[in-house]
Amino acid sequence: MDEPNQSDKNNFLYPRSRYYGQFKPENLVFNANLQEFAQKVGYITCLQTNGKLSPDEAYNQIKALWKQLKRSKKELLIANCSDLQL
Fold first, then answer.
1. Model confidence at 43, in pLDDT bands (50, 70, 90)?
2. What is the pLDDT of residues 61-86, one digit of tens each?
3. Which domain holds residue 31?
4. How far is it, in rounded angstroms, from Cα 17 to Cα 78?
5. Using CB atoms within 10 A as the burial measure, which of 27, 52, 56, 81 is most buried?
6. Model pTM?
């Protein structure tokens, strides 16, 4: 049986969806950051639900990810549109 390569594993563990919004490079980058945020939050919540992380540790990790996402939005100079407000 063939062993999957690293790219297949990454695509499985970190899936990416297409971006359908208004094309601007900063919007595309923010969308990728947002997808990464959502993926990591999903992993953290699963780990907490299964007892591998305490609720406090899960909260702190998600809070740190949220701050990182807000910082990326600010650094990308994305306008405060109603659909992108964080």
1. very high
2. 999 999 999 999 999 987 665 454 55
3. 23-75
4. 20
5. 27
6. 0.75
Nearest Cα neighbor of 36 from 59, 8, 58, 65 is 65
- Using CA of residue 64, residue 68, residue 73, residue 75, what is the dihedral sign? positive
Quick one: CA dihedral 11, 7, 34, 18, positive or negative?
A: negative
- Name the CA radius of gyration of the chain, rounded: 16
What pLDDT, in 10s, does the model give residues 10-35?
Answer: 777 667 788 888 889 999 999 999 99
- Look at residue 3 and tell me if it is in a domain: no
Domain count, the chain: 1
> At CA 31, angle to CA 25 and CA 37, rounded to 5?
140
Distance of CA 1 to the CA centre of its chain: 33
